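user: can you give me the structure for this one chain? tokens are fine.
assistant: on it. calling the predictor now.
[tool input]
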Amino acid sequence: MNVFWMHRDCRLQDNPALAAAASASAPLCILYIYDHAHLSSDTFHQSHLRFINQGLQCLNTRLNQQGGHVTFRVGHALHVLKQIHNTSPISAIHVNAIVPNHQERSTRAAVRQWVEQLAITWNESPIPGIVSTGRPSVGWAHHWLQDMHKPVPNLPEPLNFVSSAVLCPETLREPHQLSALKYRGERPEAQTGGEIKATSVLEDFLYQRGKDYSSALSSPVTAWHACSRLSPYLAWGHISLRTVFRALDKRQQQLREQKQSRNRSQPNDPWLKSMSAFAARLRWRSHFSQKLHDDPQMQTQNACRAYDGLRESEWREHMFQAWISGRTGFPMVDACMRALHQSGWINFRMRAMLVSFASYTLWLDWKRLAAPLARLFLDYEPGIHYPQLQMQSGTTGVNALRIYNATKQLLDHDPEGQFVRRYVLELHHVPKKYLAEPSSMALQAQVAADCRIGVDYPSPVVDAPDAYKTARLRFSEVRNRETTRKAVTAVYDKHGSRRGRQTISRNKRERKAQTDSTAEDSRAPKTRRTRRCSVCASEDHIKGLRCRAWMLKAHSPNKNCVKEKESLP
């Protein structure tokens, strides 16, 4: 018997491991295990299980139409597989590779060890877009594109399913039936799972909702409609990245043809720009997953170890509780957090603001934020979750400090207060001019708005401007150390932009060649004067290139540095 062991790949289309298992001559068992280690982990929530079950129900219904079914089991994965093997010997186990967290990695390692002992074939299909070993000779971005264009494996027809008499299929398990499920609670506005639903959401985005994607993705007011909303389907494997890319590629080609046939006097259609922006986000998604794949310790350790000890010893539980419950006194932060509790989703910019606010303004260690946020995010995916947490909290060493001003974010992205009033009901009657800073209302205005600060809605838990200055100062102190600069160089060499490495090296070689040529020929014409960055003395900032010092962030932000100013959020 061949076993296709599902995890984050509950779909029929573009499922390499399922296709490989189905193509073998032995009967096929499609297995899903409600793994106790997974159910009880600190990153798993009942909302995840609900979404997974919706996907499993969709898949099982489609398999029933072909005379098959999903085999459900509950328990520790290794014990379950041993029991199945004793009932009906397993000849091969087929899985799709994932970028796992520590719990998932440990579970798979234990199963692989058992498989090797019994000489059972272990077939792990690679992740499209992720370089599994070493670095590709063609460059990471080119390798990613090649993977997206590789042929999609097709399922043979008909499928040769294992008999129900041999292996009882059992049924879906609801939360109340799973005692190992540790974190429970409802997300009433959460999306519905399933491959059919995922395909519908994709089509709706590409042909209906996505027109204003590039201009509307930053605001929580417009992002709910304008963003793809595919993240939970991709995270739990109800649709593949390659399927999304190919549908997008087809749509872009259609838009280019329409542009060529359109009269030049007509205004530009925002569709093409938005689809291009979305394509970049798909590559970006794989880029971050590659980081955790290459360095699994990013889940629990700072990418740049020079920042160890910066926040860890200063945890303040009351600050964390105010943040996680949406009671900080900063309306945009509170609205975003409460939206997550309701739906499990918020747009990327607001996620970045939440982590930035917790990390810099409240000075909380990202490592203790990771699990609570994972439970809140319906689309929790380790490969994106941990690298992004480190990026937004400043511990990578190679990225600009992203210290978001929560008040400014409200004024920029929810100026009318639509989003804030929806989720922070205490502020429903607060006048617009006070909405960004309710604590600035006089007592008379508070009474009129039926919102008493400190009673109905909390006062700000921290002085944000003062916290901003303190955070900047403390990071500057660490950055200016020689040991930090060496550590940052190592991080950049391992995790820096794969698109930019060759460019930086080429620019450096070209500048060196110019210098050598000038030194050899004293009659060479003088170069015109060029403004230089006052910090690193590089002309690259003015020319629009990124010098190595800027890429490594080895110097502090400087008001005269053009690129530094552009990098601020």
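assistant: here you go. Residues 500-569 have pLDDT under 50 and may be disordered. The two ends are 55 Å apart (CA to CA).
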